[in-house]
């Protein structure tokens, strides 16, 4: 009998690296699944979704474009596609979980995801935590392995190294904020793209659309420090993710900075003070500020 190990991640990039590490250390691709929130439709726009109706579930095999957008996951796992799940919204999914979700119509309801997780051996309360986490913008990676202590420990360590969140503690945090449990009806009537109250730069929608801008900001502010853009790319991506997170749609930077810092440091992304200006810059750009304005607000010189 196999045992399933589950990792919950706040960011898709963390889940992606966890999958890559699992494959690199000998876990079978056919035993690994990934489900990640796609609240802005960033991945769906690459062509993986056939319907934008949040009350239906749709799927197509992903093509080369989708594989590129998803950072190579298409080359690591089987069955890459996209689902629009009521109560959760748009997600991308890869691995055997895709087939299971689509089988026997279970993918047609948010409860289908919970049912799949329970059937795989995850306690019902934890399955609901993972569903809630996806609804809030996170990502879930599962891997099945034989009842081998060494392999179980290896998978657990890989998840931890890549920033997996303790789901029980996270659920406790949600409860302290007033959460009373996963409700599949919440958000089921919402459009797949969150109603974020800000104006994006015209023609800019995805992180990739902003990357030249972010690179320019990096060159202007850090180019003489001996660093490469790769060191700061996670910070810009994190700021982008914060600004497109439905939880923060009506909040300003001052209201979310403490929580943003806590999550950043919890995931071992680096010293907050070293990266906060890049995070803030990306946040402000997504909120509709010009490059010059965003630079000024983040305490740095203009990248315009």
Structure commentary:
With 304 residues, the chain is of the alpha+beta class. Strands 1-5-2-4-3 form a 5-stranded antiparallel β-sheet, with helices on both faces. A hairpin with a 3-residue loop joins strand 3 and strand 4.
Head-to-tail CA distance between termini: 58 Å
In what range is the share of β-strand residues? 5-15%
Helical fraction: 40-55%
Structural class designation: alpha+beta
Low-confidence stretches: 47-71, 104-110, 188-204
Average pLDDT for all residues? 75
Key features?
304 residues; alpha+beta; 13 helices
Quick overview:
The chain has 304 residues and is an alpha+beta fold. It is built from 13 helices and 5 strands.
Protein topology:
Elements: E1 2-9, H1 12-24, E2 32-37, H2 64-69, H3 73-76, E3 81-85, E4 89-94, H4 96-102, H5 110-119, H6 124-135, E5 139-146, H7 149-161, H8 167-176, H9 207-222, H10 229-243, H11 253-266, H12 272-286, H13 291-297
Antiparallel strand pairs: 1-5, 2-4, 2-5, 3-4
